[in-house]
TrEMBL record, chain A:
Domain of life, source organism: Bacteria
Organism of this sequence: Pleomorphomonas carboxyditropha
UniProt xrefs under InterPro entries: Thioredoxin-like_fold, Thioredoxin-like_sf, THIRX-like_proc
UniProt keyword list: Disulfide bond, Redox-active center
Name of the protein: Thioredoxin family protein
A Pfam family matched in the record: Thioredoxin_3
Stretches assigned to the Thioredoxin-like fold domain: 1-75
Active site: 10, 13
TrEMBL record, chain B:
Gene3D superfamilies: Rhodanese-like domain
Gene source species: Pleomorphomonas carboxyditropha
Domain Rhodanese per the UniProt entry, residue ranges: 24-114
Origin organism lineage: Bacteria, Pseudomonadati, Pseudomonadota, Alphaproteobacteria, Hyphomicrobiales
Matching InterPro entries: GlpE_sulfurtransferase, Rhodanese-like_dom, Rhodanese-like_dom_sf
UniProt name for this protein: Hydrolase
Annotated Low complexity bias: 137-149
Domain of life according to the entry: Bacteria
Keyword vocabulary terms for this entry: Hydrolase
Annotated spans, Disordered: 137-156
One MF term in the entry's GO annotations: hydrolase activity
Amino acid sequence: MEIKILGPGCARCKATSEALEKVIQSRGIQAQLTKVEDMREIVSYGVLSTPGVVIDGKVVHTGSVPTREMIEGWLAAKH
Amino acid sequence: MTETTKKELAEAREVCPTTSRGLLKDGALLVDVREADELARVSFADCEVINVPMSEFEARWNEIPRDRDVILACQVGARSLKATYFLMYQGYERVANMKHGMQRWIERGFPVHGDASIAPSGQASSCCCGEEDASSEASCGCDSSSKSKVTAGTCC
């Protein structure tokens, strides 16, 4: 699974990254987590409001730090 | 999951305020993406301008016409560059970003409504919505490679 976190590196983006890492580790999920901080590349996903989360090429979330429940839901849908 | 596809975006066209003035005189539309409080301080004058603030841009971008030249501007040109790329993502072809934005527009002595002496760098309404860093825009990149129909005689 390939997960991308879209955001310029602000506190909310870091919190999103940490939240994802926490769930991935606790569930033992094999996933590659990448941060995308380049503005042009972020917008190339059609995203203006960050942080955004992209899982296997699909934007699943934008504009806020996702909750643990949200993250678990996305990851469960992929397994 | 949202079915949003990734699109390769070409480098955005950027024009300096001097070239922007020429384009605006020739019928381009200026889209000011600054927030209401910024507009209340100072706003672009002597051109056709609409305001679509960054905080509402995702909901209102389709108010911007596709069939004419559009120049996007903000305080120093960072938020409007993001908005320019967003319109390109949405398929707009006649869009350009005004480099250095209102700050350089005022420095050039171009017309404004409000107090031109009060032109602080724009602050984003949220940490991620429209971050701007004037220091990253210190160099003046004239748009000599611009596809603009108007060639700037005295650029930047």
